[in-house]
Amino acid sequence: MIAKAQEGDRAALDELVTTYWPPIYRLALSKTGSPEDAQEIAQDTFLRALAALPRYKETNATFKTYLSRITLNLIIDYYRKRGRAPHLVDIAQYNEPIIDTSTRPDEAVVSAEQRREVSRLLELLPEEQRRVIELRILQGVAIADVARIMGKSSAAIKMLQQRALKKLKDLFDENGITGGREAGAG
């Protein structure tokens, strides 16, 4: 698909944008907290990527990683220009929930409360650990790609992920969340 897009195939270009727009937009939205700014950053990501497409060379990194790196650089620029720190957002707001039609309303409320609680606990993690969890667990990015995005070795990413998951488990235990249900519930 990338080779066809490099040759100017309009359908291939459209397919690249259609395939990668949602994760790039979600990444920008999770970092800015603003749908308008996320839209602009995602657009700029694709403008830059498509402008550089003739020079793009396949590497061990996926095209999604390439786009994510551009997006993260644009987010850094976004905050530099505004001279402020990143807006902390509730990650649960940007995850597309899978609605189980067999779920009873009372179970759905508990599930929503648990997602909010998990998001709150994620915010308690150190920045690098939270970022690894966002990329690896929430976005499904491969370890090697996360390593490139964060400028670390794969071993360092594995260690960060392991520490983050252990810290989250401890936070879950401290807050009475076990096995997907709050302690004493159901």
TrEMBL record:
Any idea where the RNA polymerase sigma-70 region domain is?
16-84
Q: Which residues form the RNA polymerase sigma factor 70 region 4 type domain?
A: 116-168
Keyword Transcription: yes or no?
yes
Keywords of the record:
DNA-binding, Sigma factor, Transcription, Transcription regulation
What the entry lists under InterPro entries is as follows: RNA_pol_sigma-70-like, RNA_pol_sigma-70_dom, RNA_pol_sigma70_ECF_CS, RNA_pol_sigma70_r2, RNA_pol_sigma70_r4_t2, RNA_pol_sigma_r2, RNA_pol_sigma_r3/r4-like, WH-like_DNA-bd_sf
Keyword rRNA-binding on entry: no
Q: Record's family?
A: Belongs to the sigma-70 factor family. ECF subfamily.
Q: What is this protein called?
A: RNA polymerase sigma factor
Gene that encodes the chain: sigD
